[in-house]
Amino acid sequence: MIKTLAIAAFIGLAAGLLGALCGVGGGIIMVPAFVAALGLDQRHAVATSLAVIVVISLVSTTSNLRESGLIDWRIVAFTALGAGLAAWFGAEWMRSLGNQTLNRVFAIALIAIGTWKLWKAM
Description:
By secondary structure, the protein is mostly helical. It has one domain (2-121). It is 85% helix and 0% strand. The protein contains five helices and no strands. The protein has helices at 2-22, 26-38, 42-64, 73-96, 99-121. The chain is globular, with a radius of gyration of 16 Å. The model has no long low-confidence stretch (mean pLDDT 88).
């Protein structure tokens, strides 16, 4: 159990750092790590990651508040409204899908986003 908690702490460190630097961490770091290193299935890994993201977001946002104007609260409000609604339905949908389907959706999303980011960086 101590080994599992140590691995979880390491995953959290990596996700928190990447989350604070790039605005990512949950899906890209924690979900695959929870599956590979801790043996969680995809559904449990996603749900656990989302709970941790709450803490990462609060801590990072609190730190970012130290620089005035860094956060555009109008964009936050409108994005949060749409994201909150979609997240409610997405969480309901996630619980109804099998792990293999969720793995495929996750992989396709990462490839699509990585291709979009790589294309723009070139």
